[in-house]
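Consider the following input, taken from an annotated entry for DUF2461 domain-containing protein (Mucilaginibacter calamicampi).
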Amino acid sequence: MIQKQTFEFLAELADNNNREWFMDNKQRHDAARENVIDFAGNLITEMHKIDPAVSIELDPKKCVLRIYRDVRFSKNKTPYKNNFGISLPTTGVKAGGAEYYFQVQPGKSFIAGGYWMPEAAHLKAIRQEIDYNGHDLKTIVDDAGFVKLFGKFRDQDKLKTLPRDYSADNENIELLKLKSFIAWHQLKDKDLMKADLVEKITAICSKIYPLNVFLRNAIV
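Applying the prediction step yields:
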């Protein structure tokens, strides 16, 4: 489970996002990060049972993203993220491609899966798979249980114009316009502090699993 102290640290960090405060509270950060790393280890073990492509060899420390922000190209110059993220790739031990992602953030925690903003070659391959086997993807994302958990898959960020090589009368055009292929479900803070959190997340991810299989098959 995620400890109450982890949420308290993140909430205070959001209100004091500066180096002086962070250094004064470095021990709290380290304790909160260890809490998330411990949870990541348990999550990897159980997720491997749901999706064998989540390697049991994943290092929990490497799966927990650094809290330091890259501000080089951002107008927002605050130095720290106000969340902890756990990335579980399905391409061995390297990120990139279809994955599962868990974020701990007071009031904004969520579990997600799929492929966010695929690189050009992968996006082309995914669109080709949709063009050839769009029915398979529709079966996944239009399932009543999927929609109840994740909402309408087609409503995420998409092109305003037609993608290259595809016409407006293509039966899968709304799926072909998508820039990302993500399913995400918001979680309540109180649920993250319960002992059954791993079971809850893996149950949700079992519904994301067919989507990730479809995406992986497209880019092999």
